[in-house]
Amino acid sequence: MTPLQRFLEAHPRLFVLTGAGCSTDSGIPDYRDRDGQWKRPPPVNYGAFMHEPATRRRYWARSMVGWRRFGSAQPNAAHRALSRLERRGQVELLVTQNVDRLHQRAGSERVLDLHGRLDQVRCMSCDWRGARHAFQQALVERNPTWTRLDAVDAPDGDAELEGLDFASFEVPPCPRCGGIVKPDVVFFGEAVPRERVETATRAWQAADAVLVVGSSLMVYSGYRFVAAAAQAGKPVAAVTLGRTRADALLTLKVDAPCQEALAFLRADEPAASVPLP
User: Fold this and answer.
1) Which of 73, 82, 210, 216 could make an SS bond with 236 (beta carbons 3.0 to 4.6 A apart)?
2) Interatomic CA distance for residues 2 and 241, integer angstroms
């Protein structure tokens, strides 16, 4: 029995926190290297997106190209392993920092999308919401010449389009009020909704221990739960490659790819993806 297996056996009610490393084997790049440093420029800032039309054009052009692959990504064995952990009755709540909804597609139900979901868009004026796939069609209709572009994938549905003039790119307005449409995700510089923080806090308080999968915990929105749980005396295990912000707080550290470390949960068994509504 591995140390991680013993940890799970000893703690039947887990607060699980996942990050980008959980989805890399689904073809979605992560943000940071083994030392927790940025591999690429940081993601778009909320203030810039809301107040600078040029930033919005650049964001949506890159997103339109990147969505073609991001929108078709499939769960991998790590997602399925955590789904099986839930079916064993061990998951109090799975809080994910990812916005790809792959945990839900793998069958997990007790999931909190801490940073929102990229498969949905919303108006920042009237709170209209719509499907990202439909918004993709609106982007394509207004910008047909951009559909011939291809680029290297970047995290969260982005694509590395560099050296282009985005001035001609047209961003559709809200179909209801004409306002600014934004992905229904939390951008850098934007606060996580309070009710999500409260839900996650109640969950780690009710759990026996914390399991971190695929996160460096460099972003405070996820780190705060681990730090608070450790301070409260909860054991914390982390499965991730490289350094985490919480290394000094960990009871157990497994420096290995998520799929490999969770293989004992029979993650390699075939499992059909669950279609999202």
Assistant:
1) 210
2) 17
Closest CA to 237 of 267, 269, 211: 211
User: pLDDT for 52-86, tens place per residue?
Assistant: 999 999 999 999 988 888 888 999 999 999 999 99
- In this structure, what DSSP letter does residue 176 have? T
The dihedral region occupied by 173, where left means phi > 0, alpha psi between -120 and 50, and beta the remainder, is: beta
Is the Cβ–Cβ distance between 95 and 17 less than 8 Å? yes
Sheet holding 252-254, edge to edge: 111-113, 91-96, 14-18, 209-213, 236-239, 252-254
Active site residues: 115
In degrees, to the nearest 5, what angle opens at C-alpha 157 toward C-alphas 106 and 256? Answer: 55
Beta-carbon count within 10 A of 136 CB: 17
DSSP three-state, residue 3: helix
Beta bridge partners of 183: 121
223 touches 245 (CB < 8 A)? yes
Bridge partners (DSSP) of residue 57 are none
State the sign of the Cα–Cα–Cα–Cα dihedral 111, 230, 186, 29: negative
pLDDT tens track for 149-208: 776 665 566 666 776 789 999 999 999 999 999 999 999 999 999 999 999 999 999 999
